[in-house]
Amino acid sequence: MFDAVPARYWLLLLIAIIGFAPARYVYRHVTRSPSRRDITQPQEDLTWRSPRALAVNVAILVGLAALAVFIFTPAAAEFARSPSFVPILMIGLGGFALWSVISGYMSGTIEPMVRGASWKFDRAEQPKRYWASMSWNGLLGIGLLFFSGQLLVDAPMQALRDRCHDYENERPATDELTACNRLLSEHPNQDRSSVIAARGSAYYRMRDYRRAGADYATAIGLDPNASSSHYNLGLVHEALGARESAIADYSAAVSVDPKNAEAYSNRGLIFLDTGRFDQAISDFTNAHELQPANVEPLANRGLAFAWSRDAARAEQDFAAVRTRDESNLVVLHGEGVLAMARGDMAGAVRLFSVAIAREADDAWAYSMRAAAYGRLGEHQKMQADAEIAERLRRRDGQSRGR
User: Fold this and answer.
1) What region, left, alpha or beta, does residue 267 occupy, with left being phi > 0 and alpha being psi -120 to 50 degrees?
2) Per-residue pLDDT tens over the stretch 49-62
3) Looking at the DSSP assignment, which residues form a beta bridge with residue 121?
4) pTM of the full predicted structure?
5) Is residue 328 within 8 Å of 294, Cβ to Cβ?
6) Closest CA to 205 of 158, 230, 239
7) Which residues contact 363 (CB under 8 A, 6 or more apart)?
8) How many CB atoms lie within 10 A of CB 251?
9) HSE, side-chain direction, 13 A CA sphere, residue 59
10) CB 276 within 8 Å of CB 304
């Protein structure tokens, strides 16, 4: 349950906890001013009030308020993702621990930095616990500063790795490419296969499929057991129209990692598009078993059943998909195929028209509606849909449709 709470809200809670004490002091300083004292009541000890303490606490509150605003900015999000974030926090904690040692030595009172504890030990009254706490806080502070220093030394390298391995595609592909090239140039022997594969992903995002394919092939040569490289090479071969090569790549991916559901799905789609329905059904079944929460393999298996004229099992899969995704486009495609199989061309036209209304760039639905119009003898509409389908496919640079 708590995993769903964004980190920034936990930071807000921490800021509120830290700010409670200075806020309480400012409130008491204002409400317990001598000018507001009830003269009928005994005089209260207000020696704790001072302009300096008020200024310090107000400054703390202003700083915390600024921090609360900052954590919701893009700069804060970028900083939180940077490799310097954790070591800087460690430096802050280490510095606080060492300051507690200095302050404790000067005041004769120390509070050990122990989770869940709220103890204070006096040098005169509890000397053993006092010096044990002083030693603990000192060692903790030195250790935190030492390890944070090591992390900061590694931070530039880690920042390069993070930019190169941009799994979420949060940065421009050119930034990813530059970072990968720097890693290969400056650190040629460190995890070379994964860096080259990451550079291939940058080329793929830039639609430079030839260079992407060359990098994925090199990465496979360095690490043949990298299922992701085989899978990504399959994506490249599909983009280049080399479907049989893509099938071989996806087959290699699932051979190395039998739990690669995406490879099963992509290979199944090629089998589906090329009329190898039994093989498509097998791949979609494997993908669905590996990712039961994903309805797409189930919808595609239903479409393969529809093309195989197995209406009962197709409808069974479509019904299961509708319980989780009522507007699934693949289900509409499959129902259109079933309508054509039973000779209901008007019904097929209606279903494919609904699909086009939902997805205006659905080249596959245009081509299938063109076929239905052809069987109805409406040749002008057939020709118009066929031209639109071809134009969309040329624009997208691919012929896959579902």
Assistant:
1) alpha
2) 788 888 888 998 89
3) 110
4) 0.67
5) no
6) 239
7) 388, 389, 390, 392, 393, 396, 401
8) 15
9) 6
10) no
